[in-house]
Predict the structure.
Amino acid sequence: MNRGDIWNVDFAAGTHPAVIITRETAIPVLQNVTVAMITSTVRSIPTEVPLGPEHGLARECAANADNLFTVPKSGLTRRRGALGPAELRRLDAALRLALGLD
């Protein structure tokens, strides 16, 4: 389990893909991780990172930095893929914008 991995996550509303955003060094010692929801509604806004089949997803979609959740690691049910270095940089930028850190 690593930062940038895409997993199916069991949410109250059902199972949805999400990308882990917790920092790499914290993942082994925490019982929960923070994830960004992945949605098929792509709005092409700066707080989204475009993703698709090359990341283990069924179709074109986006990780949405405006929809963050902290979930138990036990709720991550199946690893689907991972972001590459370019997508991780875009995710970092999207998170800074979404959280007002710039």
Notes: Strands lie at 5-11, 14-20, 32-39, 48-51, 61-72, 76-82. Residues 5-98 form a domain with the SH3 type barrels. fold (CATH 2.30.30.110). DSSP finds one helix and six strands in the chain. The longest strand covers residues 61-72.
